Amino acid sequence: MPEQPPYEEEEFHHGPEGPPPEDLAIAPTGFGGTMDLGSSEAETLEKTPGGPEGTGPTEKPRSLWSDAWRDLRRNPVFIISGLVILFLVVISIWPSLITDQSPLKCDLSKAQQGSQPGHPFGYDGQGCDVYTRTVYGTRVSISVGVLATIGVALLGSFLGGLAGFYGGVGDSILSRITDIFFAIPVVLGGLVLLSVVTSNTIWPVVGFMVLLGWPQVSRIARGSVITTKENDYVHAARALGASNSRMMLRHITPNAVAPVIVVATIALGTYISLEATLSYLGVGLKPPTVSWGIDISSASAYIRQAPHMLLWPAGALAITVLAFIMLGDAVRDALDPKLR
Amino acid sequence: MTQAATEPPLLEVSGLVKHFPLTQGILFKKQVGAVKAVDGVDFRLDRGETLGIVGESGCGKSTVAKMLVNLEKPTEGAIKYKGEDITRLSGKALKAVRRNIQMVFQDPYTSLNPRMTVGDIIGEPYDIHPEVAPKGDRRRRVQELLDVVGLNPEYINRYPHQFSGGQRQRIGIARGLALRPEIIVADEPVSALDVSVQAQVINLLDRLQAEFELSYVFIAHDLSIVRHISDRVGVMYLGRIVETGKDVEIYDHPTHPYTQALLSAVPVPDPEAREHRERIILHGDVPSPANVPSGCRFRTRCWKAQERCTLEVPLLAVPAEFRLVEGPAAHDSACHFAEEKQVVPPEEPEQPEGGTP
Amino acid sequence: MLLEVRDLHVEFRTRDGVAKAVNGVNYSVDEGETLAVLGESGSGKSVTAQAVMGILDIPPGKITGGEILFQGKDLLKFKEEERRKVRGAEMAMIFQDALSSLNPVISVGDQLGEMFVVHRGMKRKEARAKAVELMEHVRIPAAAERVRDYPHQFSGGMRQRIMIAMALALEPALIIADEPTTALDVTVQAQVMDLLAELQRELNMGLILITHDLGVVADVADKIAVMYAGKIVETAPVHDIYKAPAHPYTKGLLESIPRLDQKGEELYAIKGLPPNLMHIPPGCAFNPRCPMAQDVCRTEVPPLFEVDADRGSACFFWRECLDDTSRD
Fold first, then answer.
1. For an engineered disulfide with C287, which of B120, B285, C114, C293 has Cβ 3.0 to 4.6 Å away?
2. Tens digits of per-residue pLDDT, B317-339?
3. 3-state class of B217 per DSSP?
4. What distance in Å separates residue B121's CA from the closest CA in chain A?
5. Using CB atoms, which chains have 3+ pairs under 8 A with A?
6. Structural domain boundaries of chain B?
């Protein structure tokens, strides 16, 4: 039979060895990703002209990243948390956009006064404008969170990635080290380590968070790399003679990075609240730096007389942390490879 | 098909062994045993030939495939490509050999990097071996390859998840062909595909073999497919080849009891056969490769086993009783009590359907 | 008739649209009879079985029409409570993947015994004894010692036997086996299939065997229903269909598999791909892939024509198809 039909199109479902147990594995997907059926359908849809059906609209190339982005854009959780975060980032850079006062200009005579025109959140114990201080506090929180996350993600995924890729003794040693770090109570560690620091910048706090935070990411990165490197496409690259760096950069990293992104996004929220905790305890940032933690700390003594002093910065903190955790959730849903 | 004796065979495997150590301990690992995945395998592959390797899961056939393409280092033994032992090579020399031995993987869903376009996947061999194709020529070559495997060359910028299983397998095959290898090792290339698509991919492999003068090592658990595509067949059990010969010798004149049992267990799509077909139902399961029986490794499930089988390892050679007679029964079989037995009903002369129209 | 499925329709509502998985399936099984439902992935063979068992995920699945008559009563009219009583006791299912179908943290004996505790109100000790009995019945060696073992301690073939034992525990009238041997090796597959067939004969059960393997079907089935795109395209006694298929799809499938007993040249390959279940082609769903398709196939949906008293084909040209095959 010499004639070979041009560009055969064929079956559309997949399954490991033999057909899958169910013809149609469909499950609710929560955020609207495609499950088995979805993907198989998508495949069939994409048959291009030339196929016997001749119906398929010519489809554009769609990378997994663009698919994830498309899913994200449709997810209300992402939209809400994204807008909140965007707003926070903007005011952390340009706080003067929404307030024209200075957080350090205080008038003791107005101490603890409540809301009044021009000062919607009232005044704190030093007579400073709570609204302005809350706005300015964003900058510290966001920068500590972002910097600590970048540090943790880079260090953690570098070490974890190498350990996962090469395995062996180095991996064993790294795993034991991460175990040790997991055993350190974060707040206690902060109290001990940061109490000896005198610098009044955000760097000691960021450094402390990176120091204690990297094992979490390293563990995730290691696991993700180990799973990814067992895929046949990595074997295929190796069989072609690809170098280690090529396999890591082209094949493993792009496929292993998703869980790290998710963990990092969620961790960002927790670093922000950790900064507030440490500042509250007096070992994080110190006045005159404006920080929600510091304000919460100083307001807590007057919670009965003037609760507004505490509620505003605490509310801002809660919303910020929540926004990042929700963003992390949305990103996880979009990147979850099981749903593709 | 066979080469003249003057030239070494294209590929010759001798005494191939792969043991995976079983270890205990957290930081300092102590070996407490070994999984004998492959335990002394010999075979040869000539130019333009297809060698089929069949066996059940855990028999070591996939490990053999991995060693052939250097994804696993053998514990012992030699893999000679044109007379040169490739297990000892490294660096440049290894890379050069790799160009000539390529692999097609089983699972079309994990063998293609989901983050790369089809063009990048098929073109990657050229990035790794830039001497094969000048940069400006690569795109054209990739499109040519897509065309060769029956895919539309315009698909070059798409991603793997936009294709069906059978199409992905074609992409995997195109990648394997990119460097114009002489040998393709195919590990269960169609077992993940639907029945009607299997035929398409098998036909494609057949066609490519003729077009590119390829030699195949075709590894599968499906005996019917192996027969269809292979010139010679090796049957593996627990890390060893127990019987090997031309396809007719193995399928129509098997002499090893395991081969006979395996063949008789294959369901034949012919309801008439179920009445008059003798089926050998083996008892028990395959022993663990970490704990291989002494002597003949098949003896624990063999209905012919005697004391000799416990004590003496049968060698893979033409059994004594067939040595003097010319005929299809005279082929290598590692059994002390080899005996010819026809288990596959012979081809009927009128042959209603199936086969070629 | 033990089970009769009449004009069953199942849809799946997904974000991308409605997938019509089952589009008017009719089949029946009698006591002691084996019906093989043959089809490739996506043909709707498993979805139909799940609907019969009442284990379909709803939503996204939805049964949009038809009847499932079990011993004369329509199961679709049952309340969930009544349905549950039928499941396990009167009809049981065997799945492809025994490892994931058994609970990994409960011993095999307890899982088997639970059937008796729940449905028969037995005491634990009695139930344990029953479990051993069952395990012996499916020929698990040293059953009395192994009854305390956990699923992962058994090999694939043994696990599948345990699944069979569990399905048979309450001696149901109907067994649905969904690709019961696909995950097993050939030699073990033969053991398990043999066992299943033997027990079926012994208990005179109806068996619906769902598979893609034409070989397995030929070995054990009495009659076959071939499914394509959610419809039965051909139904016939097993001997007839292999001798002379009356539908081009069946014919194509039979010709596309390599044979153990002959080398063969090029394999016949059905061109194209199965339809997208969200956009099933008008007319006969197989028409874009069919070598015999005419204009009528593109516009009209073929009913199931009666080929013989016990044979049907959903092809306008079933006569030509039959003639064509017998001519070779």
1. C293
2. 888 878 777 778 888 988 988 88
3. strand
4. 9
5. B, C
6. 251-269+293-346
